[in-house]
Specification:
heterodimer, A: 251 residues, alpha/beta, eight-stranded mixed beta sheet, two-stranded parallel sheet, 12 strands, globular, B: 168 residues, alpha+beta, seven-stranded antiparallel beta sheet, two-stranded antiparallel ribbon, 21% helix
Chain lengths: 251, 168
Amino acid sequence: MKNRLATTATSLALLTMVSTAVFGYALLSPTRRWFPPLPITVRVDNGGLASVNDSSNGVTAAVGAVNAWNGGGVNVTSGQSANVTYTNGDGQSDIIFSDPRHLCSGSCIAATLTGYYDTGQTGTCGGVTMVRITDADVAFNLSFNYTTAAETSAEGGCSNEIYLESVTTHEVGHVIGLGHSGVSAALMAPTVAYCDNKMLNSDDTAGRNALYNCTFSGGGGGCKSAGQSCVDSSECCSNNCKGRPGAKTCK
Amino acid sequence: MSSKHRAVVSALAIAAFVIAGGGLAGASTFLKEDVNSLRKQSEAVVHAKVVDIRSYWDADHAVIYTDVTLDVQGRLLGRADNQIMVRVPGGTVGDFTVAMEGAPRFEMDDEVVAFIARWYDDVPMVAGYFQGLMKVQRDKLGNAFLRGGVADGLPMSELARQLRQSGR
């Protein structure tokens, strides 16, 4: 009897570990994603990072990291170098290589804020109801030293630096609607170590596919009336969203 | 305890830990903290109750912040006023929500233990973001246990002991 109990308990433990490993990715709560048209444009601060000693101060690496989420029939992000500002609610997803709003302090390396309307449009993806992300911006803490694969390849190593590609790809995972994974090898695991240049693995792409590799039907939740806050005109019954960034309303 | 009994208990303990998820929480990207590293960043560690939560756009209408008022019931480390207002990135204003993954999350009437540091402008913050905030839960005997953050699973008295010890 004791043998059977021990076997059952051990099986339960192993089964639980295996299932956790398989289904490690997490979606943000409430479940949310960008609605078509896709891909969304993610602008990368063309000023770069002074601590990155490669030919573009990390801009090229960061643009590549944005686009790393595309593949397997999913085309969700389009990175481009631009002059950017950090404003929530302007409908433009930006990565800025500074922290002008002082969001990221101490052990925070980079911070992503995603914006959405609680009572706004919803859509379904594979039968799951999702809220529409209307904005997402990423800020970096300049207290850390960053590097890229190009830099470490040229210099022969990494020392007490954070890989820009790894952090950028992780943050863009949040931008598109992913939370943190329970799989430690996943790029979307919650913490990062110095000189650890993690790449997307199968758990990360499974999370992406859960949000974007599906038949999407959107626009549920109705259009917004005059006076309600909005980011772009497609949300408004009048198809007219105006005002200063972050304070637009349907007309 | 027999070896078979120990095997059963061990296996069940492993299963329970895995099911509990090891206390994972959402985040942006952070360096991993522990009690000692957070203690070094903090001016105080308080046991408190959440008595007010207010979210607002900043003066430039660029970011939403939330001010959380904590009614301090005890001090595990350092000095703190009887009420502290900590600023947290993100929040909801009207029907628009801005969420920072990894920001500490408070709800009204929560009983919490928080590591307190300062933002650049001297306003109090939770040190280490989600890693510096634990929610207090009590067992049937009233003993306080901590959930979340760097002290996940510890009795509150044990965290206090560790903080006293590491401060020597």
